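Provenance and format

Records in this collection were gathered into a single text stream. Each protein contributes a sequence line and a token line. The two records reproduced below are adjacent in the stream.
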Amino acid sequence: MDSLTPLPPSHSHVSLAVLVDQRDANLLGNVHGGVIMRLVDSTAGAVAQRHSGGSAVTAAMDAMAFLNPVHIGDIVHTFAQVNWTGRTSMEIGVRVEAEPWNVPGDRLHVASAYLVFVAIDAVGGAREIPPLELTTDDDHRRAREATIRRSHRLAVRAEIEAGRQS
């Protein structure tokens, strides 16, 4: 298979699960947001490396919304997939759910995040990645929404740079 043959999101989909404990607690006794962010970044990184077929680095966390707290003892599940690809970069969407250790299957959506990764070569330069093969309505929706987020990111960057030059 050619390394730039289009790949469906299912090719690189990743899910992880961890049991959070006292080491992960914040001052309120819940799981620290940074612990969740690290898990999100790790899950997204695995997806980016699978899709790109090699090393990839986090370029941006476009958005992360914390919807509910995670409690010590919960099993935290992350689910991630590629939503959009450019020539060397890709957006990875991650969903985080928490499941009480003593109530199997009772999961609560606790966070969602969108991260941008860039594939890199052996010397750290950007390298081309396979395009994304969109096959389902959900794939098309995710790609459309990712394109909107990318447009907003680029517009904000341009506005900031213009403001610095005035």
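Adjacent record:
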Amino acid sequence: MNDQRPVKRQPSLLERAADMFGLDPAKHAPTIDVSQLPPEPERKAKKAKPAAEAPQPEILPPDAPAPAVEAAPAAKASPRKEVARAAPAIAANRQGKIDRERLAARGMVVPGAPVTGIAEEYRIVKREIIRNFAGTANRPVVPRGHRVLIASANPGEGKTFTAVNLALSLAVEADHDVLLIDADIAKPSVLETLGLPDGPGLMDALADPHLPLGDCLIQTDIPGLKVMPAGTQHMHDTELLASARTETLLAQLEQGAPGRIIILDSPPVLAASPAAVLAGHVGQLIIVVRADQTLESSLRDAVGLMGGCPHIQLLLNGVKFSPGGRRFGTYYGQGGAS
């Protein structure tokens, strides 16, 4: 006859701790009565699972044909993760032809024309600009150096002349293309200089984020040169240029074009406040100094206001005399031995 009396179990660690330290001060008795605990349920022993029998090979008679082997079903191709592709470059929705006769009449760089002295001068300037953002063995890379702002202390010192000539010279580079932006909102002159039609541009794109950027770009008849006009004048031009929208816009204009150089024609530094704001969006700043015209005090004031750009260079414009007798461009087109 089986003994059906409940099996007394041992108290747990928590129960023993309560028995030792959890005394009731009034009754001087343990707060937990171990004898009143229900019996511990019996644990059923786990049945050992029988080891899986290894399949025995089937023994065939010597003359029996070989069994047909069923082809394993083809594994389903797992869906490939879509690789993030770089956004394509923004295409210009407008076309324009550069007026080469107008450029020649103003003594500027003329695309496709024989090399002149002015063309050689800007070849030297552009090499310096490229070295600053491409980096050389003895020169550190200028952050955002592919963005170049062309400014001057006062109007009439040659900033637009320099911006257009530099853009035309850079546009023929094999590894780069150029986007020339007219950022002189109050008195834009890039389109007039190049002979291009007017239309929406920089300020329109900043004021209306939903405006397609392609509508604000002009593809010139030079494959490596696009132009963005100044656009519609805005009473809050400085505030728009200082906003995060400008940085976003510049990044969109750079996407899909890793070799792109952006040239911005700035307003005169001492005549319009947007110039100092634009300096914070670029890596290189060229201040054009007009020979026999720009005062040293004006130049110092301009440099002080443009401190937002980490790399400032000066370009002397309108020089009629070279102490070293330098005459670039005269070598081309000459016959005889070199």
